[in-house]
Design brief:
single chain; mainly alpha; Glycosyltransferase; two-stranded antiparallel sheet; 4 strands
């Protein structure tokens, strides 16, 4: 059933202008304690904010030149990117850097002013475990399927997926599958919506979705919707707007979004907006942040909310960007 968005009350209309202003204001709060507490997320935060702006149809709301300058200032000689200037290189911030540069069409700047795509690819490839096929987040060796997905995401955008052992990585994902159809952070770990997204999306990039138990996974994911319409990350947990992305995108990739109540989920996300000051929170009444703003808007895009650009369910970036970079 298609929802009639025009009949929604004012508080359930998408507050586009307020969200744009909220995201624009985030870098102007340098006198606030929280700004410096979150420095380790600066590059990730730029990706979240920029993605939200692109989906809202306002890609110009952040200055392109300054965005590129900041991203390149975070790059190390080894090709990796830190979360902010002076921070160690890490897989997650490197992936965000690649995604940002892809969105603002600045791979040429990476070649001419940065260390180049090849060096970035070399850094990411160096983090693959040759025995298990999975990836570490940095030189200190923490392994997680988030890093595997991040590697596939960034390398495919750079056209460098051939630098890693894709088959061994796919075998590792298969080993993370559980009896309930879901995937965990590592073999034997419990199923979790976030990890399911990383594994399903990585399999999609590798062209190996036939390994997914679609019906069993679809059942587990659809059971994440609770009475209020929101989705949770695993059984017996509270609903959270961010799972509007992790769960819904996974359902989209396996063709099962019709197994949940889309209207209830839409209303839950829209109820979590601050319609005056902008931003989206984890659930109605809580403080907003750029993380939930990004993934709430991405979820609404998957739900065909009017006024939003289509989001790619595998990359969590505008479909227009993916078409320009990958040609599909």
């Amino acid at each position: 059933m298609t929802q009639n968005f025009t009949s929604l009350p004012q508080e359930l209309q998408l507050a586009t202008s307020a969200h744009v202003k909220y995201i624009q204001s985030l870098d102007s709060r340098k006198d606030e304690y929280d700004y410096w507490l979150t420095e380790h997320l600066r590059l990730n935060g730029l990706y979240w904010g920029l993605t939200a702006l692109h989906l809202l149809g306002h890609p110009e709301a952040l200055p392109r030149a300054e965005t590129i300058d900041f991203v390149l200032s975070c790059q190390h000689e080894n090709g990796g990117f830190g979360a902010a200037p002076g921070h160690d290189a890490h897989m997650l911030s490197t992936v965000s850097a690649v995604q940002i540069l892809a969105m603002v069409d600045a791979f040429d700047d990476l070649e001419t002013r940065g260390r180049g795509k090849a060096q970035v690819g070399k850094y990411i490839a160096s983090l693959q475990n040759p025995q298990t096929g999975t990836f570490a987040g940095d030189e200190w060796g923490e392994e997680d399927t988030r890093f595997l997905y991040g590697a596939f995401n960034a390398l495919s955008l750079l056209g460098l997926l051939h630098l890693v052992d894709v088959d061994k990585a796919v075998a590792h994902i298969a080993a993370c599958a559980n009896f309930d159809g879901g995937y965990g952070v590592s073999p034997g770990a419990e199923s979790h919506s976030g990890q399911i997204f990383t594994c399903v999306a990585a399999l999609a990039i590798a062209g190996r979705k036939e390994l997914i138990d679609v019906d069993r996974l679809g059942r587990w994911l659809s059971e994440r919707q609770i009475a209020g319409g929101g989705l949770n990350g695993r059984p017996e947990k509270k609903e959270d707007v961010c799972y509007s992305w992790w769960v819904l995108s996974s359902l989209e990739m396996i063709g099962k979004t019709h197994w949940i109540d889309k209207e209830k989920l839409t209303n839950f996300i829209l109820s979590s907006q601050d319609t005056e000051k902008g931003g989206i929170s984890d659930r109605p009444g809580d403080m907003v942040d750029v993380w939930h703003t990004c993934f709430g808007i991405a979820g609404l895009s998957l739900l065909d909310c009017p006024g939003l650009e289509p989001v790619d369910e595998v990359y969590c970036m505008p479909k227009s960007t993916i078409k320009r970079v990958l040609g599909h």
